[in-house]
Design goal:
heterotetramer; A: alpha+beta; Ubiquitin-like (UB roll); five-stranded mixed β-sheet; 3 helices; globular; B: alpha+beta; Aldehyde Oxidoreductase, domain 3; four-stranded antiparallel β-sheet; 4 helices; Mopterin_biosynth_MoaE (chains B, C); molybdenum cofactor biosynthesis (chains B, C); EC 2.8.1.12 (chains B, C); Molybdopterin synthase catalytic subunit (chains B, C); MoaE_sf (chains B, C)
Chain lengths: ~90, ~150, ~150, ~90
């Protein structure tokens, strides 16, 4: 058992009211999609944001990640809207 | 030579151009793009005052470097430079600088377009519009930017 | 705003960029190309020392202006700048500066490519190569340049 | 009857040994192609340059011109190689 370091950016950060947190992961939460489902179950604010239809992107250890990509203890996982730089 | 920077302070376009022009005697063409905060007055809305740019420290630098490395792999470049600012940038302020140097103009110009297109979809930056009445809104991602980047897919 | 210049002296890229960025608050993207005298060492030939550029005074200015006007008619530009030097330009010296400003990046970059492609085929300039042994030869026109300009034909 | 102002550039200028001249045109020399033919007849150096296979371009009054374009007294006519600027 170990923790992940979660980061939030842009309107996700603003609406959650926090920019980061550390959470201990249950062993079955081992992929990006399972992490998102688990986060929504434990956090109604995140659940309503994720359910609002606005796209959310995920990065694991500072690389863009997809649903099936693995998440492990010690990882840095960031949630944010589609990027709008440039 | 690859140079990337994520910074709050303004960049010195002339110094960057001079540095990249000087990477070697073989540089025959230098392409450049500068993105600026532009007025986008919409009927019924207060004028834009500034963009506030947030980024993901660490990942933003590494993605700029990755985009630059991709450009160097795809085009015969002698070097490229990518600088992206963050923080509050009032109207008219430069946001981003892209430079690509090559022996020939076509590679330099193509790489410049490639870099700016990918930067818009692959680098973790987010823009918030600040209007003159103090109201503020996050910019939504434009599908057009995804299409522009997709043009470069093999 | 269109600005063209045919001149012997160096141009100040930073000042030109600043001037064109400042033509209006609507400028969101600025494309730029700088062409430089590059080393083109060929086996068995003495290294290049300089290019000597001759032009047709009067016609060179008016053709630069015409190319700039065509760019403004073809792309939604807020302004563009074309500066072409003549005289003896040693290795590494800038020869030509092209700038195009628009609301959006794609028009700025496309116009930059259009301007430099047309300049190479439509402006009366001729290059002579000067080698380090004092020998000298006029550069032959490259069919590739005609093709690049032809891409822009309707 | 009037004269044209002829200009030569690049290797044409160098090999002819002059950068300009004024010539009185016979009335039948009223187009670009006729002017070139007439110039070659009266000037062996220009004839051998034009016959060397290297392309020559023409501008009339500082506009690129083609074979059929008119030439009139008072015009400025320039002969030069294909351009190599940029």
């Amino acid at each position: 058992m170990g923790s992940v370091h979660l980061l939030y950016f842009a309107w996700l950060r603003e609406q959650l009211g926090r920019s980061e947190e550390r959470l201990d992961l249950p062993p079955e939460v081992d992929r990006v999609d399972r992490l998102l489902r688990w986060l929504r179950q434990r956090d109604p604010a995140l659940d309503s944001l994720a359910g609002s239809g606005r796209a959310i992107r995920v990065a694991v250890n500072q690389r863009f990640a997809r649903d099936g990509d693995p998440v492990r203890a010690g990882d840095e996982v960031a949630l944010f809207p589609p990027v709008t730089g440039g | 030579m690859i140079r990337v920077s994520v910074q709050a302070e303004p960049f010195d376009a002339a110094a960057e151009i001079a540095a990249l022009s000087g990477v070697g005697a073989a540089v025959g063409g230098l392409g450049c793009f500068i993105g600026l905060v532009r007025a986008d007055d919409r009927p019924g809305e207060p004028p834009l005052a500034a963009l506030v740019l947030e980024h993901y420290p660490g990942m933003s630098e590494s993605m700029l470097r990755e985009v630059a490395e991709q450009a160097c792999a795809r085009f015969p470049l002698l070097g490229c430079t990518v600088i992206h600012r963050f923080g509050r940038l009032p109207l008219g302020e430069p946001i981003v600088l892209v430079l690509a140097a090559s022996r020939h103009r076509q590679a330099a110009l193509d790489a410049t377009g490639f870099l700016i297109d990918w930067l818009k979809t692959g680098a973790p930056f987010w823009k918030r519009e600040e209007r003159t009445d103090g109201s503020s809104r996050w910019v939504e991602a434009r599908p057009a930017d995804d299409h522009a980047a997709a043009r470069w897919k093999d």
